[in-house]
């Protein structure tokens, strides 16, 4: 068995797919009302990211806070140059999260507030 796809709830599936497509340099392969996908050219480059419209979407909070919509998962993205990757993520529509628990990791938020982490290996 292997995981082939990760699905994120979205206030606007197409907008979120466009952000991740730009961030990852991967095309949006499906963009339908309420559903969009970003598919890497090879399964070796990561899973398909799917985005599903949720009309009652509430941005997650992370770390958790009482009464907040807690983030149940986040994406980890390995990069070659952390500063350059942060700049690229900002251009793609992400924001730098105030919560930065490690010096070699940058916590970012996509346009819907889902956290994702940029880090370098080694």
TrEMBL record:
It comes from the Bacteria. This is VOC family protein. InterPro entries: Glyas_Bleomycin-R_OHBP_Dase, Glyoxalase_6. PANTHER family: CONSERVED PROTEIN, HYPOTHETICAL FUSION PROTEIN. Residues 6-119 form the Glyoxalase-like domain. Gene3D superfamilies: 2,3-Dihydroxybiphenyl 1,2-Dioxygenase, domain 1. It comes from Quadrisphaera setariae.
